Amino acid sequence: MTIISDRNHSNVLEEGTLRDIRAELPAVVSIVTTADNQGTPYGATVSSMVSLSLEPPLLLVCLESNSDTLAALEVGGGFVVNVASEEQQKTAFAFSKKGPEKFETTNWVLNSSGLPKLVDSAIVFDCVVTSLIQEGDHTIVVGHISNLEQSNEPRPLIYRHRKMHTSPTA
Questions:
Q1: What is the DSSP string of 76-109?
Q2: In order of start, what are the domains of the chain with their CATH numbers?
Q3: How many beta carbons lie within 10 A of that of residue 59, not counting itself?
Q4: Which pairs count as long-range contacts for 158-162, CB under 8 Å and 24+ apart, including other chains?
Q5: What letter would DSSP give residue 156?
Q6: What percent of the chain clears pLDDT 70, i.e. is strictly above it?
Q7: Which of 17, 59, 107, 138 is 20 to 30 A from 124 via CA?
Q8: Which of 75, 81, 76 is nearest to 52 (CA)?
Q9: Given this model, what pLDDT does residue 100 score?
Q10: Which residues of the chain have pLDDT under 70?
Q11: What b-and-e string marks burial along 81-114, b requiring 16 or more CB atoms within 10 Å of the CB?
Q12: What is the dihedral of CA 140, 77, 145, 111, to 10 degrees?
């Protein structure tokens, strides 16, 4: 296999063009939560979460490299991916903003690892950080899935055209 990489990172596209193209691609809305060494909760809404490997069970999320959530995650070593349900639109918007008050307006509990888990999420992945890779203005966080929970009828939120949408039914 040959891996081709342009480490020059020349700007071929204007930032606005790339944003417009990315807005066309539907993405599952997830909220990454974690805590620092003092137990202070942190969280951020992300649209870049994917399954990476079945064996071992790995997923990846991308966080802004300057985010408080990433800083807490780096110290604590664990995180939770809460796949937002249809009922969590307000929560997803709250966690897309900066500031600690987002946990004051949502229902959450501590999981068995002592990390914040959002109640009513469609799917919840408990993860342990296995690697961090900084690329551009984001950091790729790879996590080993240590536990998985799923609601009876998971209907995750979808982000497309810069708006939240409900999942289509089968």
A1: H-EEEEEEPBGGGHHHHHHHTS-SGGGGGGS-EE
A2: 29-161 (2.30.110.10)
A3: 18
A4: 158/26, 158/27, 158/28, 158/29, 159/26, 159/27, 159/28, 159/29, 159/47, 160/23, 160/24, 160/25, 160/26, 160/27, 161/23, 161/24, 162/23
A5: B
A6: 76
A7: 138
A8: 81
A9: 72
A10: 1-27, 158-165, 167-170
A11: bbbbbbebbebbebbbeeeeebbeebebeebebe
A12: -130
Residue type, 138: H
Amino acid (one-letter) located at 122: A
Closest by alpha carbon to 43, among 86, 10, 16, 81? 81
Range 21-56 burial, b when 16+ CB lie within 10 A, else e: eeeeeebbbbbbbbbbeeeebbbbbbbebeebeeee
Tokens of 34: 């974690």
**Which residue stretches of the chain are H helix?**
15-23, 68-76, 89-95
- The amino acid at 141: V
